[in-house]
Amino acid sequence: MKLLKLSAILLLTVSLTFCSKDTTPEENLETADRVLEGGDPVGCETVNLIAAQNYDAGDFTISENEDGDLILRYETMDGWEINEIHLYAGDCAEVPMNTPGNPKIGNFPISETLANGTTVYEYLLDVADGTTFCGCIAAHAVVSNSGQTETAWAEGIDFPGNSWAMFNEFCGCS
How far apart (Å, rounded) are the C-alpha atoms in residues 67 and 20? Predict the structure, then answer.
């Protein structure tokens, strides 16, 4: 029964969120307008980076650069540091999950162990020319603060399993 519920939720999520569209020159100009002087992208979606289900350890921001590629940025605050990141960005139906519907972060395609003291991590997701990324982004981190080490998720929609893991549905900065 749980497998049927999980399948129905994933099918609904994919059918509601997966899209791909061609961009026109006007849309490319709109994307370029969101870039600050100096070439720094303007975040089009920012959510809290939640540690241990209760702490606001920072932010996770999704931005687009002038080429339409995504910049996925973890940034901690208030003494929190990033020890590891695990990141999935792609088709919602392809998120690595176990049978109960919990994400398998060890199978996320982007995983890195970071140097001590890291407070900012950015990943550039190359998006094919002429398309807009539409899909799921699941951003996980291991963070620490004053000797306390916790798991953290970018705040969003709960995965269907019994953990507190979350993901975000995203379809361009428009």
Answer: 16
